[in-house]
Amino acid sequence: MSYVHDYILNKNDRKISYAEFMELCLYHPQYGYYMSNKEKIGPSGDFITSSNIADVYGKTIAGWYYKEANKHGLPAQICEIGAGNGRFAKAFIDEWSTITNEPLHYFLIDGSLNHLEKQKELLPITANIKQLSDVNQLPPFSGLIFSNELFDALPVHVIEKQESGIFEVMITVCEDKLIEEKIPLKNQSIADFVLQSKLSLANGQRIEIPLAMEEVISKIAKSLIRGLVLTVDYGYTNLEWAQPQRHSGSLRGYHGHQMVYNILQTPGKIDITTHIHFDSFIRIGEEHQLLMMNKWRQDEFLLHAGIFDQLQNHKDQNPFSEAGKRNRAIRSLIMSSGISQAFHVILQEKNI
After folding, report:
1. Full strand arrangement of the beta sheet holding 271-273
2. Stretch (H or E) spanning 219
3. Which residue of 61, 137, 150, 305 has the fewest C-beta atoms within 10 A of its own C-beta?
4. What is the pTM assigned to this prediction?
């Protein structure tokens, strides 16, 4: 908190955008949430991801890609962006070795030194399994580029529509507290995004503007020579953003699996996230030669990908047996009240 205060007060106008605030709170080398040694994922962390429920998630996608690679003549190469603790990669690699003897090349990309160390605890870092800190380090690549909950963690600007025009919501310091201050929108890139995305805002409505999203999509597209891009995340279409329940936007935090509505109170201590703009994500992808192939709800995709192949017949009455735990994980990923209801899967291709 002290660092953020000093950072803002040293600015000429003593205010920063939400995007700059999120960049500091999540990715600062010393104080950033994702850079810390704190346990973030799982029961003792702040949130859960599909790939950390059970290895069945990574195994199902491995089986799916094996079929897609054969179908499209793609190499056995995977790049996972935002690879986190490495659990998805381990499940994918383990399943691949049971399906085929074809050597798999796997790139894990993550900017957190803590995550890179956790990956080393699970995986042998070899010539075929490599760690990178940024997409820019990826050599010209053909195969599958995968991400799970990457785009929802990118910094976003916040704007609000009022009768007198559109304002950007900034952050400043008042009486040793972080507070918001609205200024008339000056950032032309934000105005261009609103126009190109055909966003229509009601009076009083707030929305997050993900300028960083295009930068990441552009990096992916430049690195990919030929292959598939599979993106898993939660978000809304333009029609969904226009619904009354989205009036306040989607910016929020998570701490101890509880939602935090005021993300200004504990900078660097909580996960901060937003819903992505699905229509804009697809539009920007096509502008960078990533062509839309399909979009599913996550449970629909997992069924399409053959998750039931992972079910195991067992007579063991022990509910904590490996087979029992795997079967329960499959149910949790496809049941109507499970985690998959909140997520969508977008499949894009380049030069296929």
Report:
1. 258-260, 252-255, 271-273
2. helix 211-223
3. 137
4. 0.92
